[in-house]
Amino acid sequence: MRRLNYFLQKYSHFLCRKTRIKAIPSVILVLVMMSSLAFSSPTVGQECLNTRRAKIVYNSPADLQEINRRLNSSPVALVSQPNSPAPYPGQDPAASHLVAKIDGLLSKVAGVLRLDLQNYPQLTIRFLQDGRQVTKLFHLFQPSSSRPLFGYGSLPAFYEPRSRTIIVSLQDLHEGILAHEMAHFFLCSGRFQAPPEYYQEDMARHVEARVH
Questions:
Q1: Maximum average pLDDT range among 74-88, 149-163, 186-200
Q2: Contacts of 159 (CB under 8 A, 6+ apart)
Q3: How far apart are CA 55 and CA 93, in angstroms?
Q4: What per-residue confidence (pLDDT) applies to 23?
């Protein structure tokens, strides 16, 4: 009887330990999913601007002005596009210009890739101050080297496919780099499986060259 009790105690301890070990990957998976959602949500102190096709997350009105300055598209040429919502009374002109620029650039990238923009979900674009902040975020939310994160050069920007979010350095921003990451968004968000990384990079560089 003693041996039986001893065996049962050992077996119970073994099952509890095995259950805890099995629970660890589940916890990690939940944390990864939560970190992906964090990409697309504004943090405390950040502001959010919605367009018809995208959600723009930035730090301040001054950043909004700088984003407008760095994107080369003419606001006059883009504001009249039917896909862009009309500015509401009292809206910052920089905000209405940026709405038109982002939606216009998405339309331009979709055109280069010969894709129908109507078939794609909303994209989130999060602007950080510089490439160091972008790189820190990339490493913080990358649990392993096998995760499908697609970067650009020295990480002035990257696309996070789980949350459909572009993270971009305001200091390095130009129309070409944003178009490059938008190409990753289109290639990863369609109804079919995302193509291999090398093909995505070739297509994204092609889009960047056509747009910039």
A1: 186-200
A2: 149, 150, 165, 166, 167, 181, 184, 185, 188
A3: 17
A4: 40
166, 55 in Cβ contact below 8 A?
no
Distance CA 188, CA 128 (A): 23
Q: What's the pLDDT tens digit per position in 95-145?
A: 999 999 999 999 999 999 999 999 999 999 999 999 999 988 888 766 555
- Asked if 178 contacts 168 with a C-beta cutoff of 8 angstroms, the reply is yes
Strand duo 157-160 + 150-152: pairing: antiparallel
How far is Cα 102 from Cα 78, in angstroms, rounded to an integer? 9
Per residue in 76-96, pLDDT tens? Answer: 344 444 545 554 555 678 899
Token digits for 181?
């990451």
Name 123's Cβ contacts closer than 8 Å, sequence gap at least 6. Answer: 53, 54, 55, 106, 164, 165, 166, 182, 185
Question: What residues does 160 pair with on adjacent strands?
Answer: 165
Nearest to 135 by CA among 112, 146, 151, 116: 151
Cβ contact 129:59 at 8 Å: yes
Q: How do the domains of the chain map onto residue ranges?
A: 40-211
